[in-house]
């Protein structure tokens, strides 16, 4: 009288679940250049670490004798596993069953994955392909009712937008056509990555094209170029394997939850490394530009820089990196775009990134080169100042250690909010730094118009006034008033930043729950 028959029945059901939507659907998935959800889970996690939960959940059909005749597994695969030895929760859509639509799953499965991440204080990785919402319009007929405003959406949206984002790292991988609630699940993350053959949209081409008059392809409507430039997705890669690698690298900078601290690694890069080139990297001619990314790569630990959102808000660079082994969040002005001015998009990018740093206790390194908020008609139409005020609030409300190095420009309101106000922060300036309420260029003609027009040689008078004011604007003069605590030798920047990392580690406070990221 053993229980072997039941175990054999369990094994049979598990085999049916592993078959997913069947050989034909699996072959179609592979023919499209995409892995199945189980192959994705295996590729994302450490080998042999996946412990599936609810494998045999699905829809079964029984014969008159009560024996199982047919079984269609839920198209949600979820459970626990490890990434680089650290426990995580993973939840994935199975596109081979009903196209990944939520009307083919058991509603509690994706919700349980979110609850598991919250209660066990573990990062959650969402592998997304499909709508993840209510299915097609045919669902109304097959179920006999609409599934909103209740149903699967309510509690999922609670976890997506208000709970887990403020507690644990959330990663989303868009690996096919992602629409509706699936798009919300991908956007409501701390880091999102999509393959370049994928697409994401609130509603796909059939719905949008029905509205006319223009007709869109998937790539035109929601391809990687559209979504990364809009800021809806952080990163795009050529293959699913690259997506897994990006997710693993992102998680390496963060703690498992807000109740822990990021892990400091051993660093082989000399913290006192001197870079002679930095002494002349900033051009003396203000209209000439320079490349900021080589500076970021040089100041931080070699090979540690992981940029986020490169194609959105391009006048600002945001990246995770390590400083003498300590994970930090890096913000830098990029003079190649709008001279580093903060656009509405750049402000939105800063808000989200500062929230990420504050939530997970990452010290901030700000390499400042900002001539102010973007000006002009388009800037006004985009409500740049409102987004700018939001960025100012995010910076001022942050509680993590902050170090600013003013490389060149710091003008206007945007220049003033280069670090949190009202508390201790470290601030350095290179000799190339220049600041004030307004740049001299263009302002002299307005402020000294009468003197210039009255002069025998207006051009000479303008040059005389400019020379006089340039001397007064020297950062050394400002340092006399202790506005810039230290004017530093650019070649010593890495050493000073590593000193900041050493004291910043002492100031971090575990157990603080951040505000989370606004999706």
Form type: elongated
Query: What is the β-strand count?
Result: 18
Instruction: Specify the biggest β-sheet.
Output: 8 strands, mixed
Report the helical percentage: 25-40%
Multimeric state = single chain
Query: Strand share of the residues?
Result: 15-25%
Q: Over the alpha carbons, how many angstroms does the gyration radius reach? A: 27 Å
Provide the low-confidence segments as ranges. Answer: none
Mean pLDDT: 87
Q: If helices are DSSP runs of H or I spanning 4 or more residues, what is the number of helices?
A: 21
The CA-CA distance between the termini, in Å, is 56 Å
Structural class: alpha/beta
Kindly describe this structure.
Helix content is 38%, strand content 20%. The chain has 519 residues and is an alpha/beta fold. Strands 1, 4, 5, 6, 7, 8, 9 and 10 form an eight-stranded mixed sheet that branches. Helix 4 runs parallel beside helix 6.
